[in-house]
Each structure stands twice: as C-alpha cells, then as structure tokens.
Amino acid sequence: MRQLPVAWRWALAGLIAVIALAVALWPRSRDADTVADNGRQARAGAGVSEQQRLAANLAACPRPAAGATGSGPLAGLTVGCLADGGTVDLAAALAGKPALLNLWAYWCGPCAQELPYLHQFAQRAGNAITVLTVHSDPDEAKAISRLTGLNVKLPGVLDADARVRTAVGAPAVLPISVLLRADGSVAQVVVRAFSGVDDISDTVARELGVAA
Prior knowledge:
The chain has 212 residues and is an alpha/beta fold.
C-alpha cells in the first residue's frame, strides 16, 4: 500500500488535533452538569447501607410539585437526599413555600445542640414552612449516624461540596440557617446557632412572616 505524502500526513494529523480540541472545549449542557452533580452525590453516599437509612427513619425529602422549576440562588442545584440516597432539585423542591435550611456537619458541636430545637420547631410549625437540614460535609454515613443519635427526624440533604453555602453567599462557618421566601429568594442568612425553639420561631416570624 502506498504511503501518503509527508505533507498530507502532517495535514491529517493537524485536522485530528483541531477536532479533538473542539470536542474538549465544547460547552457542556446543563443536563451534563446535572449528571456530574448526581455522580458526586452517588459517590459520597456509596458507604451508607439501607439498614442505616432505615434506622435513622428520616422524613422524606421535599419533592417538586408538577411543573415547578424553582428560582433564586439555589436554582439548578442538585443535592443528595439522606432519607433514600436519591437526588433533589433543591430550588424546585422548595418552591411555593417558605423554607428554613439549616447548614450543619456531624463534627459541629453547636449544630448538635441546635438540631433538636429545629426538630421541635418543625413539629410546631407544621406545613407552614419547610425545615430542611443540609449536611455540609461529604461524609454521609456520619451525618446519618449523628441524626440517629440525636433522634432528629427532619428531612435532610447532603451538600458534599458546600454549594448551598456558596450559592447564598454565606461565610465558611457552621451552623448557618438560610431563610428562604416562597419565591426562592433569600430573606436572611442567620450566622449563629439558635438558642431554643422560641428563638427560631421569633426569627422566622420576623423575617418570613410565618407564625409558629
């Protein structure tokens, strides 16, 4: 078989290099980003057994209503659900109702003191507001173990990369509570631990107009 002239071989090699570069730089779609996010969450939860989830008996994560897309700084952000290991489109799931997102971690002492107060507040508030815990650390197994030990059954999500904190512009400290309006906008970022159920209730009433 005759070999291609040297000039042609160089031209062909250059064409292949250009095509490879174009593929590498081609913008990823939002769906591709979502798949990548889901992959990170799945890897983070790989060490959690079904028995651990059942023993924790956490409330199911909120799910989007039909047609809900969500808005505000959390739009498009997907996190893992501690109760079942699935994924949650956070802004869409919270759309239409005020919400309190509590950012915490299993190693945070003030978080452990505050979480039972949040559990009691959620029981008092009923359906008036969504109270969701956001574990801001990759270790899902220790998050579930901590909640089990505290007997806190609130719905919770895993934010392994602290993207919720980044999205709302909160400082790198814990605990933090993010108060969201029904339209997904941020009403207040509370950078401290709540001192009790009445403290939570008063803050929520003042910032969100929800009485509990």
